[in-house]
Amino acid sequence: MQYRISFPHMGKYYIPIKKAMEAFVGNYGEVILPPPITKRTIELGALHSPDFVCVPFKYTLGNFIEALENGANVLFQIAGDCRLGFYSEVQEQILQDLDFDFTFHMMELNGKNAKGLYEVFKAMNPELTLPKVVSTLAVVVRIVYAMDGIEKYIRQNIGFEVEKGGFERIEKQFLAEIATAETMPQAGRIFKKYLKKLKTVALNKPAKPLRVGVVGELYVLMEPFSNYFIEKELAKFGIEVERFITASYLIFSTQHNVKKILKQADGYVSYEIGADGTDSVAKSVVMAKKGYDGIIHLKPFGCTPEVNSIPMVNKISEDFEIPVLYFSFDAQTSETGVKTRLEAFYDMLEMKKRGRAL
Ligand code: SF4
Question: How remote is the CA of residue 18 from the centroid of ligand 1, in Å?
Answer without folding.
Answer: 24
